[in-house]
Amino acid sequence: MNTRTSKLANQGRTLGESALVESASAPYLPSKATKNGAVLFSIVLAAAVFAALLLVAWFGLGLMNPWVLAIAALVAVGLAMTVHIAMEWERVVICRFGAFNRVAGPGLIFTIPVIEQAACHVDMRTVSTPFGAEKTLTSDLVPVDIDAVLFWMVWDAKAACIEVENYSQAVLYIAQTAMRDAIGRMSVAEVALSREQLDKELKTVIEEETEPWGIAILSVKVRDIVIPAELQEVMSLEAQAEREKNARLVLASAEEDISEMIANASDVYEKNDAALKIRTMHLLYESIKKSGGTVVTVPSSLSDGLGSSAEDLAKAIKGK
């Protein structure tokens, strides 16, 4: 019983997580502003025109029959259909007899009934479109999951409406295809370490495809790169080995420099006995200073070489 309960709980958590987390490859459509205000305005306008026509027919002509009601309703609906409202960030593409006529908006827009139609409302704001590529093979045949976001906007409402059927969905498909092509040309190490390069490459490729549609690509940002777990440990060990290699190279270079400096100093000391004595006295002084003592055992060969200088050094230390 407990086992069954735990299984049901796990399934519930899995379903809950899948409901909360949206797949990166799911089609994305930008949200549209509500048209309630425009619809309400059209209804009020139609009602006002209908009432005005009835008043004219009744008080001016003395007519009131079904034909008058039908004509008044037809005129009111036709007039309401000629009025459109575009938000500040919208542009409306108007076609006349099916051919492009103009781009209107924002604000109140009037069209000729039957002759002109509002083909589409185009949102001119910046749109963020999440996209990704799942189980995409790199050049070294490693499957990776990529999650990214694309920022774009429409700069030519006419081209966006006429050149492509659903420009927002087309941008998503272009981005996914460009992502898979770019990943396929790179190794898994390049994908993990070259995010900025990948961003620039994707932006360039997507921009070339969407420019004829009147769409500008602002930026592409790779948000997450998921590498198989078994490969993450291998890459970590490889990176650690690379760091150790670099550390050893730096240490070897430092030792080489030190050995060269010691060799140069040895040449100087060999040519100048006074310099060697001064260096020896300095080393003795540092040794006594660090140990805090006043008695130092000096080899006879070294003390003979120093002569009276060693005695002077000892007296100076005692005086301190």
Automatic annotation (TrEMBL):
Gene3D superfamilies: 6.10.250.2090, Band 7 domain (3.30.479.30)
Family: Belongs to the band 7/mec-2 family.
GO cellular component, one term: side of membrane
Alphabetized UniProt keyword annotations: Membrane, Transmembrane, Transmembrane helix
Chain ranges passing through the membrane: 38-61, 67-87
PANTHER family membership: AT06885P-RELATED, BAND 7 PROTEIN-RELATED
Residue ranges annotated for the Band domain, each copy included: 81-239
Protein name as annotated: Slipin family protein
Keyword Membrane: yes
Lineage, highest ranks first: Bacteria, Bacillati, Actinomycetota, Coriobacteriia, Eggerthellales
Matches recorded under InterPro entries: Band-7_stomatin-like, Band_7, Band_7/SPFH_dom_sf, Stomatin_HflK_fam
UniProt entry tagged with the keyword Ribonucleoprotein: no
